[in-house]
Each structure stands twice: as C-alpha cells, then as structure tokens.
Amino acid sequence: xxxxxxxxxxxxxxxxxxRPGLRxxxxxxxxxxxxxxxxxxxxxxEVAPGEIVGFLGANGAGKTTTLKMLTGLIRPSAGQAIxxxxxxxxxxxxxxxxxxxxxxxxxxxxxxxxxLDSLKVNAAVYEIAPREAERRIGELAEMLDVSDQxxxxxRKLSLGERxxxxxxxxxxxxxxxxxxxxxxxxxxxNAQDAMRRFLREYNxxxxxxxxxxxxxxxxITALCARVLLIHxxxxxxxxxxAGLVERFAPYRQVRLELARAVEASELRRFGELETLDGLSxxxxxxxxxxxETVARVLSELKPRDLGVSDPxxxxxxxxxxxxxxxxxxxxxxxxxxxxx
Amino acid sequence: MNGERVARPNPxxxxxxxxxxxxxxxxxxxxxxxxEIYLWVLASVLPLILLGVxxxxxxxxxxxxxxxxxxxxxxxxxxxxxxxxxxxxxxFEELVVSGNLSHQLLQPLNPVWRFLASHASERLVRLPLVxxxxxxxxxxxxxxxxxxxxxxxxxxxxxxxLAFGARFLLQYMMSMLAFWSERxxxxxxxxxxxxxxxxxxxxxxxxxxxxxxxLTELTPFPYLIYHPVNLLLxxxxxxxxxxxxxxxxxxxxxxxQRWLWKRGLERYSSMxx
Lengths: 340, 273
Fold this sequence. Notes:
By secondary structure, chain A is an alpha/beta fold.
C-alpha cells in the first residue's frame, strides 16, 4: 500500500479583492468583491513507503497547500488524499502519530526554554515512556550533532542548531511519513549539508517516507531520486530528476578556455553567454545545434580547451519556473507518474 | 509510531503524565516571564485604589459596610481577581493569526490543555508578589487584619475554581472568533466593561439597587468576584445557585465552543493556515 496516495486533489480559496486608497477602503465596506484562486488543481500521485520525493515548484505554485492537505491542516475542495492509510483532515490519533510536518519558517519549540523541555512535553503528548524518550533523544541528538545544545534556551541557538532541534522534536514520535517544507531555509552551506546527511540516514535507518519541498536544488539532488513538479497548481512532471533535466533543459553548457581575448558580442554569436571571465567563458547552446556550434567554435575561435556538460539543475529548474505557459507546453506529454 | 509507551489501558495515568509535563514546561516558561507577570499584578491594583475611596466614603455611614469592611472587601477582591483573570483569548488570537496553531493541530492533544496548563502555572508565579502586596496593605491598614475561617477559605476556593472554569470556557468560546476576525480579543474589552460593574470589582453588589442585584445573579459576573469575596469575609454566599449558574454558563460556553471550533477549523483551513 502506498504511504501517500493522492487522487484528483484540488483546493481553491476565495480571497477578497480590495482596491488601494480611501476610495478602495470605502468601496470595500459597501461591496465586497471576491476572487476564487485555484491553488491546487486535480493533482494525483503516489509515494511508496520509504521513498524520498522532492516537491518542486515556484513560489505560490501550490506545494505548501498540498503538504497542508496531506497533514490535515487544510480540507481539500475536491479529490482525495490517503496518508498512512488515513484521511488526513479527520486528524485521528493514529494518523497524527504517523506523520510529521516540518516548516522551515515556523517553530514548535518553546522559545525561552531549553529544547529539552519541549522534547519532554512532546514525549508526554505522544505517550512515549520516559526511558524510551531519553533513548530516542540521545540517538537523534547524536545523529544531528546537537547533544550539547539541548540544554540551552532555544532563543540562544543559531538558526542551524535551532532547525536541528526542531527536526528532533518533529521526529521524536518516530513518524513513518515526513512532510518537510523548506527544512533548510536560511541555513548556511554546512548546516544544509548536515541536515541532508541526517535525513538520508534517518530514511535508511527507519524506512521513513519523505516528501520534501525546497528552494535549494542541492537538497533535491542530494536526497531525491524522484521529483514532482507543480506549476500553477497543476502537477506537470512526476519522474526522475535526471529525466526532468533531460526533458526540460534542451541545451548544454559549453565551457571554453580561450587562446585570446574575445569580445562578449563575438561569443554571443554562438549561443547565450552565461559568463565571461578573462579567457574563460561559458556558453549555453541548444542541444539540437550543439554539434554544429561546437564545430564553429573550434574552427573560428580555436580555443585551448572546450568541454560540454549538462547545465546545473538549479539553472534548469529556475528557468522552468520562469516559463509562464509551462503547464500548457507539458500537458500533452506528461501526467502523474507518466512523464519520464 | 514505534516503541515503548506508558501504560495504555490507564487513561488517568496517561492524563496525569501529560498534565505534569505540560505544567512543568509552562511553569518554567512563566518563570522566564516573571517580571512581566509581576507587572500585570501591579497593574491590577484598581481594587486597592477603590479601597481608599470606599473606606473614606463609608465613614459617612451611608453604606451597608463599615470602613474596615470595605478595606477587607477590596483586599479580597485584589486577591480573588489574581486567580480569576483569564487571558486565553489573546494567546489563541496570536496563534491563529500567526498560523502557529498548525503545530498544535498536528499533535494528538487538544490545544486547550496547553492553555489551561499556562493559566495554572501563571497563578503559581503570581503568588509571592500577591502575598507581598497583601502584607504591605495590612501594614498600611493594621485594623483591617483578620484571619478568615478555614471553612470559608475552602468554600471560597471551591467557588473560585468553579468560577475560573466557567470564565475560562466563556473566554475560550469567544476566542474562537479569532478564526473569523484578526481582532477577536476586542470583544474582551466589551466583556470587561460589564464585568467591571456587575462582578463587584468597583463596588460590592450590596450597594446596588435590589432589582439590579437580582438581575446580575443570573449572569456569571457576581460569582467571579463578589460571592467568593463574601465567602472569604465570612458573609456567606448562595453556593448552590452559584454552582448552578456557573455550570449553566460554562456548559453553554462549552457547547458553543465545540460548535465554533469545528467551523473555525474549516475556516482556518480555508485561510491557508
């Protein structure tokens, strides 16, 4: 049975439309105008137990709304979600004990107390025996490398330490399903790396299912073999990360070590100039024109060295997010689980 | 969830473990905010100001209580008010508006228990300063010093607990309006005006006309301050009626709260939580 099963899930909101200024304020008092926003539209996918899946999308694409529907914080407008064998919005005890939601921008730890105090409360709430709770705290603190920070007031911790303690609190009841919304938001590179290592280890050790949203592509590339791409509320891709790059990045990166200084305008004749730093240049060239362009570059510029590679994933996804008509472009080719 | 748990079949034991953990954390948290709590205590000296006014007015003999009785009355009002003051509406409003209620909704524990634990522990933190202020007042008014009978203290405590429960339920019910309005706490201002006049906070209800007094007896207000204070002063109080009225209002608030909670969660959900 799938750990997460989503069928035709939709959520729409009615939001007030208010014009600026005094006129707008007075007008709003007399006549309230509302607009319906389709935040999530007929999204379907399944996540197998133990799988780590990346959930990608631009701001406002519908990622967080979907995660909140999966945790039962939001009732879907249509469709159905089954998580850990339960309907989330019913919020039954068995469901709440099976899941956790970590939101990078929100905290559950008590601000003025050491994290250990919050952990003790969580242990009592989830009815974990004191000795077992102590054992789990020790194990998780060691994995997260925060053993010394648990006795310091949360407000005195660095952002990275705080996030690790938040994660510890969220995992104390050993949930089978982890829903992570930007868990590395605002962390420095080392802290992000530590968090990724921890999540991988936790997934391997406990067989937990992870659905992860992140703006840091490094999180996705390090953890997720499979990604879901949501755009304007619609699921537009469900497949491997490599497949996403292959499909949505119809261009290659051509790195040049030039033999002589060349003007940027001259380089732009061969493709999009990404960087030019002295004698080093990077061009973005359409895949269809790669052979022809490389041949022209070699004959006309005679570079000392030339290398061709895939563009970085963040660039690919960044460009994807900028595509206004992405959903329309993809509609004939992709569907849930079938776009690889 | 895997692993060893506390004894599942014993709900009382489980409730005790949770209550102890919640109260311990709340008390530790309240101790961090002790300076703020002490300022609240000092900010609630209105009865001590009224004490002077009424004690002087009573010297004319135009009121049903003597000067000393007025001093004792307002000293008791000061103490009783420390324990019947409820602030759940402000905390709940903040949680809803900031979206931080979400974390609590994801745990298998109704958020109300956390609020109750906070209120209980905050009372404990207040105690030392309340005792100090009381000591200071008796130093100023040594003629007002008296020792209430143990049975009166017991009866007043029981009534105060009932009043606390009813008042908490009423305010918690009103807190649910936070799901619809970002300024739900404003309703508490309206409540406070009525409370000020009908609870016995600014004057003992026996100085009011009989018709007004009879009307107030059907509301929860006189049982929040006036009657517990009268019990402490050894003047007695209609305990059965108090229990009935408070249970009625508390029960009504509970039913309404459950109804508003269900609808409120739908609303919270549609706000994007």
